[in-house]
Specification:
mainly beta, globular, 53% strand
């Protein structure tokens, strides 16, 4: 048996419009969905900085929609 704990990797702070855990509306496949931001990624493609989100859409069987561009996120949903 192994009793070693895994070390957590240091995560760099990404300056994005929305933060992890925000409840947001977003466009996906020409529909308007809502969900929670699960993780945030920063990509630099051809000199253009792009921020993408993984968003969890809830229900009885939650799923994570990956690679949603920041432009597709409409705004924070009010409860």
């Amino acid at each position: 048996m192994c009793f070693f704990k895994k070390k957590k990797k240091a995560v760099a702070q990404i300056d994005s419009k929305y933060k992890k855990g925000d409840y947001v509306n977003f466009r996906y496949k020409d529909e308007l969905y809502f969900g929670w931001i699960w993780s945030i990624y920063y990509k630099n493609i051809d000199g253009m900085p792009m921020i993408t989100y993984d968003i969890q859409i809830a229900g009885q069987c939650p799923t994570i929609v990956r690679g949603i561009l920041e432009e597709k996120v409409v705004g924070i949903k009010k409860n």
